[in-house]
Amino acid sequence: MSTVLSISNKIFSLKGQMFIDDENGERRYDAKGEFAFFCPTWTLKNSTKELATVKRKFWAWSPTWNVQSEIGNFVIKRKLFSWTRTYNVVGGSYDGAIIKGNIWDLKFEISHKDKCIASAKAKILSLRDTHNIQVHETKNDAELFTTITMVVLHLDKQDENNDSDTSD
Description:
The protein is α+β, with helices and mostly antiparallel strands. About 15% of the residues lie in helices and about 45% in strands. The protein has a single domain, classed as Beta Barrel (Porin). It has one helix at about 140-165; strands spanning about 5-10, 15-20, 25-35, 40-45, 50-55, 65-70, 70-80, 85-90, 100, 105-110, 115-120, 130-135. It has a 12-stranded antiparallel beta barrel with strand order 1-2-3-4-5-6-7-8-9-10-11-12. Strand 5 and strand 6 (about 65-70) form a beta hairpin.
């Protein structure tokens, strides 16, 4: 049986916050950023404990995210020259996983060893950046890995939007 999640950014948050809810609208995870001028650390929690921290690497050719989590430490690195947003996972139990978006940045697929772990689709008519996520893999850590990955995708999208706003 697959799990359905929804991730969305909180509107009007100084430090940043994301909510990850299940198909019934119940809160499963909460991601919060700390106040920092450069590369804030984001913490992913469920209702009882801290599950992961995510921090963007400051000096890197391509956007790179260091993740420390219950399922191991790994890096999510964005591929520089690609028509779509594509990321590779290095280290941890999902070493070699690939996250690939479509040309309009509305759909994503997370795969590992030629098997689709999860897929996500953006809500088009929404005030917040929101994705509905279908976790296909039934392993216990697949949901947490997918959630961490989607937090990174949202953070990268925010950084990309902030960079384009400052260049205008």
